[in-house]
Every structure is written in C-alpha cells, then in structure tokens.
Write a structure and sequence with these properties.
Length: 337
C-alpha cells in the first residue's frame, strides 16, 4: 500500500491503512506515525521496517493481519529499529517479529492467534529489545520469545505477561558477551495452559557464556505464579540446557527476590520445586532442586496489576546484596548449600 525507501522521512497522522502486501513498508527512512490504524487484509505485515529504517509509532492500532502463514502486525528487520509507544497490536497471526532494536512502551500485544512477540534471528551485536510498562496477554502461542547473541540483550520491565497459551517468556542465548537479559518487576501469571505442549512461565535455553554466571538471564521482583498445566510437565520457570553454568550454583541468585506463590508444585516426574525445574539432562547433580523467595505474595489476583509497580523512567538496579533467601539441595539431603 504505502512504501517509503532509500532516504528522507515519511510521516502519517490520523490515517487508516487497509490491505496491501504490507500495509506500510519503511525501508531505509525515518517514519513518524501517530494516531493511525493499520487494518488487516495484508499478505505479509501491517508494518514492515527494513534496511536501516526507523519507525516511531505512537497512539495507534495494528490489527487483523491474519494471513495463514505470513500474517504479522509489525515486522522489524535486523538492521532496523522501532519504538512503539501507546500502541495496541491485536488480533494478528503474530503480533510482532523483532530482529532489530525495539522499544515497546505503554503498549499492548494481545489476542494474536500465535505468539505475541517473537523473532527470526533475535538480538545480535549492539541490538537491544525493551518491553516497558506494557501488556503481552491472551496470545495463542508464547507471549514473548527472544534470542540473544554477542552483545545483544533484552529488558522486560514493569509489564504484564499473562494468559498466553505456551511460554510466558522464552529466552535462548548463544555466546552472550554483553549485558545479561533483565526481567524485573513483572506480573508473569497464568501462562502455559496448553494440555499438549510442555511450557512454562519463564523458559530459558541456550549456552550464553559457559562458566560465566554474569551472562545468564536475571529476574527479580517479579510475580511468577499460576503458570503451567498439571496434566503435563510445566510450571513457573525452567532451564532447558546449560544450567547452572559449569555447575556453579551461584547462578540461582540470578532469580532471587521473586514471588513464586505459597506452595510447591509436583511435576509428573515426582520432583518438588517452588520455582525452578531443571531439564532431565541437567538433573544428574541437581535432583530435588528447591528454589524460592522469602517474599510473601503481594497481590492475590493473578490477573491483576504487576506485583512490584515500576515506572518507565526509573528502574533501579538490584544489587546482589539485596537478594532474599534462596535454597538448593542438589543431592537430596537436608543440608542447604
């Protein structure tokens, strides 16, 4: 429908764009779009941001891009960047595919038939993905699926990740050399309801940086409760491969100071856990791992607001000295280690 290429700027205000191969394609230009609706019927994406293009999208709606194999609300290419502020991305096949730097702020990604946010190549060297004070809810696949390598990273801050059919948040890493992924102050509840696919509130896979705990994803001040389906192996949080890095249990502290709920959960394999479940291939030295926070539940309503409200402009770093109690029991004895 609308295509801006090569150089210059492209601005759109108070408009509606319907159909086309892409509703709007931005390739190598800067585009400011405000108070507009990108309505479905597209063959591929409502928005396609390619090349070195930059999209600033505010107070707008992207909906109903439902092509059976290609339908995407917003697609951000690996060399592009996008800021979505006050945007409702809804009722597409996939809400957002993000392979370039992006910020999702004060926005919602909801009711998409597949994943809310996902990737093709993920965040690579120098790329950063930010989700701030936003909602990723009621999607038919996972809520947020991300991959990091080299100096790429994500921050998910002060947001609601709720009622997604598969993983709430799923992360994969490969030789991470920059800042670790940070997941802070979020409400991650009632995800992973599938009765056929094992899935988790938070799912971590990949190698990150072998033996370097500082590169492993971190999560604090989150409410991670009510995820999983009791009929299959599922639950609050899982590490699928390299955990803990080189057998170093200090990595557990990366997920201290969270609310895991009041009661442990038994998975079908008989392993009791409060927060963490370890992949079968990783259980040789860490059976019966228990991991929990001394924080008491903040909000009994799992569909409510975030457990620890933060704001866009101020996210204090969490020092290791601030961690609450964590306990692990790798040999099944009663001794805390």
């Amino acid at each position: 429908n609308l295509r801006a290429v090569s150089s210059g700027t492209f601005d759109l205000v108070n408009s509606t764009v319907i159909g086309g191969y892409n509703g709007i394609r931005i390739d190598g230009v800067t585009s400011d779009i405000e108070a507009s609706t990108i309505l479905g019927g597209t063959t591929v994406a409502g928005f396609a941001v390619l090349g070195s293009g930059t999209l600033n999208l505010t107070d707008s709606i992207v909906e109903d891009n439902t092509h059976a194999s290609n339908g995407v609300g917003v697609s951000i290419g690996s060399s592009a960047s996008a800021t979505l502020d006050g945007v409702d991305v809804r009722e597409n096949r996939v809400g957002i595919i993000a392979d370039g730097s992006f910020t999702l702020r004060d926005s919602s990604v909801r009711d998409n038939t597949s994943s809310g946010m996902t990737y093709v190549s993920g965040m690579g060297a120098g790329e950063t993905g930010n989700v701030i004070n936003s909602s990723i809810i009621d999607n038919g696949g996972s809520g947020f699926v991300g991959a990091v390598s080299n100096t790429g990273t994500y921050k998910i801050l002060g947001s609601r990740i709720q009622r997604n059919t598969l993983h709430g948040i799923s992360l994969a890493g490969t030789t991470v050399t920059g800042s670790p992924v940070r997941i802070i102050g979020n409400q991650i509840t009632r995800n992973a309801s599938s009765t056929t696919t094992s899935s988790w509130g938070v799912n971590i896979s990949g190698t990150y940086a072998s033996g370097d705990n500082t590169k492993w994803p971190t999560g604090h001040r989150n409410r991670i409760v009510g995820n999983g389906n009791s009929s299959i192996s599922s639950g609050q949080i899982r590490s699928a491969s390299e955990y803990p890095p080189s057998g170093n249990w200090a990595a557990l502290a990366h997920w201290a100071d969270n609310d895991w709920g009041a009661q442990p959960k038994s998975n079908p394999g008989g392993h009791e856990y409060f927060g963490f479940a370890l992949a079968p291939t990783a259980r040789t030295s860490c059976d019966n791992a228990q991991y929990y926070s001394t924080k008491t539940p903040y909000d009994p309503d799992l569909d409510g607001d975030i457990a620890y409200p933060y704001f866009s402009d101020h996210f204090p770093e969490v020092a290791e000295t601030d961690f609450y109690t964590y306990q692990f029991n790798p040999t099944g004895s009663t001794t805390d280690r």
